[in-house]
Amino acid sequence: MAETKDNQYYGLGRRKTSTARVHLTPGGTGKVTVNGKDLSKYFGTDILRQNVIRPFTTVGMEGKFDVNAATEGGGITGQADAIRLGISRALLEFNPDYRAVLKKSRFLTRDARKRERKKYGKKGARRSPQWAKR
Asked: What is the pLDDT of residue 7?
């Protein structure tokens, strides 16, 4: 996670089975692109859109970076959280002083929860088949 060519900052984020590779370009207009689409086109709900750009509002840098994110795997919510983690890590590369603020807001924590596998003899991960006593 270091500064890349053309003064870009890179961050990798993961959540569930989603992975996001995020490049921040300082001095931009605040344009966020996910897999070649605009943020509002890619994420339908406003909550997910706000969740993605929340690290910028936390450190007071909204509208000062252009974001280019490439996501793969998982669903929309997992991808949104993966992008948020990638943005937070890239902001750390830009300015290490943001660590305290981002850590307090829990944006640097990788959410390790994953889907639990289905077990044999069960209907799902934990649900047992219906049982009749008599």
From this structure: 87
Q: For residue 6, what pLDDT is reported? A: 72
What number of other Cβ atoms are within 10 A of residue 60's Cβ? 9
Question: Has residue 41 got a pLDDT over 80?
Answer: yes
Residue of 11, 13, 16 whose CA lies nearest to 75: 16
Going from N- to C-terminal start, the domains of the chain cover 3-104
CA–CA gap between residue 85 and residue 66 (Å, rounded) = 16
| pLDDT at residue number 4 | 56
Per the DSSP assignment, residues forming a β-bridge with 34 are 37, 69
* CA dist., res. 66 & res. 55, Å (int): 13
Do 49 and 87 meet the contact criterion of CB atoms below 8 Å apart? no
**Above 90 in pLDDT, residue 88?**
yes
Q: Hey, which CATH number is domain 3-104, 3.30.230.10, 3.40.190.170, 3.30.1450.10, 3.30.70.2190? A: 3.30.230.10
Give the number of other Cβ atoms within 10 Å of residue 2's Cβ. Answer: 6
